[in-house]
Amino acid sequence: MRVPASALLLDAVIVALTLCAVLLLGLTDGYTQFVLGMVAIWTILCVGLNVLFGLTGLVSLGQVGFFAIGAYASAIGLQAGLGFTLALPLAALVAGAVGCLLAIPAVRMAGPFLAMVTIAFAFIVEHLAIEWRGLTGGQNGLMGFPAPGLFGFPLGEKGLIIFAIVLAGAMLLAYRRFASSGWGTAMAALRDSDVAAASLGYNPFGTKLAAFAIAAGAAGLAGGLFAPLMMFIAPSNFILSQSILFLFAVILGGSGTVLGPVVGASVAVFLPELLSGFAEYRLLFFGALLIAVLLAAPRGIVGTIAAFLPRRPNRAAPSAREDVLTWLAPQKGGKGLSVHELGIAFGGLKAVDGASFNAKAGQVTAIIGPNGAGKTTLLNMISGFYVPGTGRITCGTTDVTGMAMHVAARVGIARTYQATRLFGALTAEQNVMAAFARGAFGRPFRPVATSEARALARGLLSFTGYAGDAETLASDLPHVDRRLVEIARALAMRPDVLLLDEPAAGLMHADKMALAQLLREVADLGLAVVLVEHDMEMVMGISDGIFAMDAGQPIAFGSPEQIRVDARVIAAYLGEGEPDAPTRALGHAPGEMVTLVARGLCAGYGAADVLHDVDLTVKRGEMVALLGANGAGKSTFLNTLSGLVAPGSGRIVLNNTNIEGIAPHRIVEAGLILVPEGRQVFPDLTVEQNIELGAYRRKSRPAASELEALLTRFPRLRDRLKSPAGLLSGGEQQMMAIARGLMAQPQVLALDEPSLGLAPAMVEELYTILAELRDEGVTILLVDQMATLALAVADRGYVLEQGRIVAEGKADALKQNDALIKAYLGGSTESREAAQ
Amino acid sequence: MTLLIAALVSGLGLGAMYGLVALGFQITYSVCGRVNFAQGSMVMLGAVLGYVLTVRAGLPVIVAYPLALIGCGLMGVVVEALLVRPFANRGSDAWLMATVAGGILLDNAVLFTFGNEPRSLSSPLVETSWQILGTGVYPQQLLIPVVAIGAALALQLLFRRTRQGRALLAVVQNPQAARLMGINTGLMISGSFALSAMLAGAAGLLIAPLFSVHSDMGTLFGIKAFAVAILGGMTSAWGVMLAGFLYGLVEAFVTTYLGSSYTYIVVFALLIAVLAIKPSGLFGTAALRKV
Amino acid sequence: MTARLPFTRRAVLAAVTSVLLSAGLPAQAQDDPIKIGLVAALSGQSAKSGESITRGITMALDKINGEGGVLGRPLELVSRDDESNPGKGLVAARELVQREKVAALIGGLDTPVSLAIVPFVNGAKMPFLGPWAAGTPITQNGAEENYVFRVSAVDEIVDEAIAEYLVAERGVSKPGMILINNPWGESNEKGLTKALEARGMEHAGIEKFESNDVDVVPQLTRLKENGADGLFLVANVAPSAQVVKSLDRMGWDVPIASHWGPAGGRFTELAGPSGEKVHFIQTFIFTDPAHPLFMKLQESFPEIETLADVTPATGIANAYDSTLLLAAAIEAAGSTDGPAIREAMYGLSGVEGVIKTYDTPFTPDNQDALGPDDYVFTHFVEGEIIPLAK
């Protein structure tokens, strides 16, 4: 096993710093020696806090409590004649044990709640120290300890300081090794994404507990040194503001970096010394400096400098493809997944009900269904994220129903996420290597990145088709690569069951084909691959079995051929037959004046564009439908128009004014109103208040007659006017959302999936109203998955596929267009062949 | 009996004051999931401005106190713009430390401008006490719960009845949809910090006549109020007010029956115990997690 | 190049070493000022009292330096803020002694801070003069070579005095104690208990409160229920005011004898008119605006307009006298050597201070310059501290 050069360099720097500090002791006066000793003590504490805050991402404002416990334990131990050799480990142990106790409630909390628990803990320790006079000496504290010695050898003050400095150096060396071990990896994983860490088998409770215990133990150790160095301790040494300074030191130095704690500790200890002449102005200066550092150097001193240092790439070769395949293949022929009558309800709403299917080892099983069908919820139950209300899940012969996520992962269920959940601060290969251990921490100082592990990780990455640098930070990866790395990470668990949630979303056609082939290959190794996917071409091409569901209910389970011709499946996707919505009445034709134009619009989230050069025009009084499969980019297009997503390039013109890139509230002012997908009501406001909010940007208050007119149009809302919008049915909410949009007197009304999740009768009523609006001259841009429905009322239509416009024209003409059905259900023969 | 009444009077008065400050935490947390950890300094600022404007500038209370509150509101806006927003935009949690530092900065800036001596802000409501069942009550002590509950009610009215109030509620309930209504969410967040600081300032003005005015008078109130906000669950205003009264009463009863030595130990140990059982507070609701 | 390298390296090393050495060992020329260190609370609630100590020392230094200094060298003050925190005070004392090389230390506003510093100064053989903190064990610290001297009140003696006052002058038979919850309160708890025991009296209870408590009614109610007919009050100015306000609220008019806490600030402003009922002990007060020291103070600090603006006159006077005694001792010792100064302290006589003229103020058995005879009972009248009419 070879240690990388940069790690050796770090070790050398730490050793050199330690030696320098010891040498400096010989050259300085007693007070400077004392200050150096304080720096060492702070460093020890901050290394521990760095494990908790930097590595695990948990904010503790209670470190001073552990520091105090260590100091008192060591002081009392010394006074009881225990000797420094025993008192110091005692200090660390007692503090560590209390840390474990505090962790039990604390690990269940996050953010301000965790901060409060740790603050409360610090207060309790401080006041116990004040009140428990028999033990702690009360406010007067303890003083006059026997001079410390190690194993009978007297240290003296200078010796104690040297010992503290050496210990601090050892802590830094230990941290360097710890952070790259399985423990450190688990903590970093938990920090970047707790959900994904659990799905790699890491026990969130155990990991956080370990971090708390280590931080507490280190603080205790620091306290154990502090007491004999100060020769005096009192409760006033351990006030809350000290905790803030500890945290400040870690942030200032660079949280999560190896050298950060020593740099932060040095500044935090030396700075007040430099400012001692300014006595009373010190805190003023300190507050200002803290803010300045936070604003200007958020990564801390070490982090900021490290960003400028050249990184020597590791040129380790990936394992050969055959080796990767052999490694991946389950030894005993693989375990299948069986789901029986699975169901779950959220607040009375059945999100999934009676889902049953078998995903055999060696097969690809797809779960399909329109938006809101409950597909991801199903995956969440299988992977242990939700506890199912009813039914049973078995993996091989193991019943995994209701298992915690990390337990299910250890049984052999791996998964990916709709929105990728990589560990952003880890590199691509570190993400993969984090999965090898299936949640086992391993030895605390044994690096995860052995050369074998590195080769295998790179082998897995290149197996998934990842062609980028294995040492790129996951947060810097483009969209496609994120998906590939996430799949490689899931595979690195050597799972029996691989669950994939929309792995092809946002991928280019060629990438999708490659992905399809990859999944087929993985299944052929003997894994059970379960795929939630909207790309029908891909689904139909590689699946052995397809489970179709709609609105939480199973509608079919069969082979691709059976599913493709299943009437219920087609109905679920395209809508049922010819709708009754009235076509445009004669006598009013849309004008020729252009209201909204998008030209060459490109946009996306993060690194990769979802939209590519989209051109679209809406004329005044026209109703235009934008069609396409899920994931084609329809919602992204609307969100870009409304300013929620900043366009990468291209222009958007509304009534001769450019509106691209301006704030959403200004776009609303300009007259483009979006009724978003899923209605997005304000649940605790009444229907009336919701509708009135629609007029928020209007100059004048809406007249009562306007509300009256809306109620005439949406008679269902009249009885519900005073009830909270959250209590409305889905259809009523949709009506309300449209009414709310109309209240703004829009120049263009954009509707995103208005029929989503509505009962057929309600859909019909809704479309009748949309037709009325169209006939009254409201300019409408309509996005709906129900293509036939949308085209029945629209004047013109555009078809979006993978972020590009692939067809456009009059509604009647589009209905006949073969490209449309393909865009929804896939089915071109050449792609299936390519995948097999 | 006298002890019981004395504890009740102390507990309700202080509890209401904690609740009022905690309400400030709750408002900003609801709107944007962040809080101003310098809230204690805002309490102090309210009292100091009240003192400076009435005693030093000689303004009548009716003018001075609203001005003091406006001053606090402006400070809230400044804190949000300089110490919260830059970090929120980066997706960093450093606003926590930044607002703590802001509090230190403000306390010390006041120390050098206002002076290092505690001063007294008088109120006609602490000149004579009413004797009730063997213990004395200053009218001011009764005023605090009245103002606190009044403020909670007024906020509710503001939220329900005014255009901007409803816009703020809209941001709380669904920030994305609020933006689509044309609501400037940045302005609303800024406003929530102003409101939060004004509530703290009002608490400072109310407590000052019973206490004294000095630059570090707010620190402990800020921490206690934060405990109250957490205890109340951060999501409901009435939950937070109720938690305030609860906290004040427990504190007063522990002090009365066990002695002040145990107040912090018992109160904070209880707080941890409550959170261990209900991690999102007494009246908080945990949101459904999604992936 | 290779030939020159060792030379440059050596030069750099030499430069670095010399810088380090010069930082560690400041050169000491004969007419360099003699440094006097001050450790006191310069920020926070006690800042006002810290300021009065600084003013007292400054006045004394102006006088001494105006008369040619000590040993022909001027005296210079180096101040450090301890934020009323013993740990910080101890570190600051170390820094002043080990880095600034002060000849002596003055300071310790708060008893806990002084108590933390005491073992250190005794170990470092550094004379330490207390102008304020009254905790008994500060000077009675049991050290073989005691370097701690005080020109201030002593809790044990103060407690005896206020017990005597409350019992003899006010006819109290069952006093209660209301004490701040810190070591100062603890020290007086012992002293007062001892004073009552000596009289064979019982007390109505010992109640503690925190310096940030808004409401002390619960504690006071307990004392009242136990039949207290007089109160001992020990706390700094702001917390003392909270006690008076709480008494007012309860409508309980009871004799109060207090340690000198109320003198630290604008007590009657904070406590209201009832503050005048609190009788407390002082070592020194200005009663005459024509007092020479007061006029000098006005000269140096223009913000002082009336007698009410120097409320902790005690602090100024104690610090002023401390500095004079220290300067006299250094002059007598003929060096800035700690043990020599300590020895000289015992031989002082005829030092004219503002409180009194000191003749043999210190002996190895009694390192306190002030005793019961130097205390006066006072109260506030219209914002000024006035001696009580006997």
UniProtKB/TrEMBL annotation, chain A:
<dbReference type="Pfam" id="PF00005">
    <property type="entry name" value="ABC_tran"/>
</dbReference>
<feature type="transmembrane region" description="Helical">
    <location>
        <begin position="209"/>
        <end position="233"/>
    </location>
</feature>
<feature type="transmembrane region" description="Helical">
    <location>
        <begin position="58"/>
        <end position="78"/>
    </location>
</feature>
<feature type="transmembrane region" description="Helical">
    <location>
        <begin position="150"/>
        <end position="175"/>
    </location>
</feature>
<keyword id="KW-0029">Amino-acid transport</keyword>
<dbReference type="InterPro" id="IPR001851">
    <property type="entry name" value="ABC_transp_permease"/>
</dbReference>
<feature type="transmembrane region" description="Helical">
    <location>
        <begin position="7"/>
        <end position="28"/>
    </location>
</feature>
<protein>
    <submittedName>
        <fullName>ATP-binding cassette domain-containing protein</fullName>
    </submittedName>
</protein>
<dbReference type="GO" id="GO:0016887">
    <property type="term" value="F:ATP hydrolysis activity"/>
</dbReference>
<feature type="transmembrane region" description="Helical">
    <location>
        <begin position="84"/>
        <end position="104"/>
    </location>
</feature>
<feature type="domain" description="ABC transporter">
    <location>
        <begin position="596"/>
        <end position="827"/>
    </location>
</feature>
<dbReference type="GO" id="GO:0015658">
    <property type="term" value="F:branched-chain amino acid transmembrane transporter activity"/>
</dbReference>
<feature type="domain" description="ABC transporter">
    <location>
        <begin position="337"/>
        <end position="576"/>
    </location>
</feature>
<dbReference type="Pfam" id="PF12399">
    <property type="entry name" value="BCA_ABC_TP_C"/>
</dbReference>
<dbReference type="Pfam" id="PF02653">
    <property type="entry name" value="BPD_transp_2"/>
</dbReference>
TrEMBL record, chain B:
<dbReference type="InterPro" id="IPR001851">
    <property type="entry name" value="ABC_transp_permease"/>
</dbReference>
<feature type="transmembrane region" description="Helical">
    <location>
        <begin position="6"/>
        <end position="25"/>
    </location>
</feature>
<dbReference type="GO" id="GO:0022857">
    <property type="term" value="F:transmembrane transporter activity"/>
</dbReference>
<protein>
    <submittedName>
        <fullName>Branched-chain amino acid ABC transporter permease</fullName>
    </submittedName>
</protein>
<feature type="transmembrane region" description="Helical">
    <location>
        <begin position="187"/>
        <end position="211"/>
    </location>
</feature>
<dbReference type="Pfam" id="PF02653">
    <property type="entry name" value="BPD_transp_2"/>
</dbReference>
<dbReference type="InterPro" id="IPR052157">
    <property type="entry name" value="BCAA_transport_permease"/>
</dbReference>
<feature type="transmembrane region" description="Helical">
    <location>
        <begin position="262"/>
        <end position="288"/>
    </location>
</feature>
<feature type="transmembrane region" description="Helical">
    <location>
        <begin position="37"/>
        <end position="57"/>
    </location>
</feature>
<keyword id="KW-1133">Transmembrane helix</keyword>
<keyword id="KW-0472">Membrane</keyword>
<feature type="transmembrane region" description="Helical">
    <location>
        <begin position="223"/>
        <end position="250"/>
    </location>
</feature>
<feature type="transmembrane region" description="Helical">
    <location>
        <begin position="95"/>
        <end position="115"/>
    </location>
</feature>
<feature type="transmembrane region" description="Helical">
    <location>
        <begin position="63"/>
        <end position="83"/>
    </location>
</feature>
<keyword id="KW-1003">Cell membrane</keyword>
TrEMBL record, chain C:
<dbReference type="GO" id="GO:0006865">
    <property type="term" value="P:amino acid transport"/>
</dbReference>
<feature type="domain" description="Leucine-binding protein">
    <location>
        <begin position="33"/>
        <end position="359"/>
    </location>
</feature>
<dbReference type="InterPro" id="IPR000709">
    <property type="entry name" value="Leu_Ile_Val-bd"/>
</dbReference>
<keyword id="KW-0029">Amino-acid transport</keyword>
<dbReference type="Pfam" id="PF13458">
    <property type="entry name" value="Peripla_BP_6"/>
</dbReference>
<feature type="signal peptide">
    <location>
        <begin position="1"/>
        <end position="29"/>
    </location>
</feature>
<protein>
    <submittedName>
        <fullName>Ethanolamine utilization protein EutN</fullName>
    </submittedName>
</protein>
<dbReference type="InterPro" id="IPR006311">
    <property type="entry name" value="TAT_signal"/>
</dbReference>
<keyword id="KW-0732">Signal</keyword>
<dbReference type="InterPro" id="IPR051010">
    <property type="entry name" value="BCAA_transport"/>
</dbReference>
<dbReference type="InterPro" id="IPR028081">
    <property type="entry name" value="Leu-bd"/>
</dbReference>
<keyword id="KW-0813">Transport</keyword>
<comment type="similarity">
    <text>Belongs to the leucine-binding protein family.</text>
</comment>
<dbReference type="InterPro" id="IPR028082">
    <property type="entry name" value="Peripla_BP_I"/>
</dbReference>
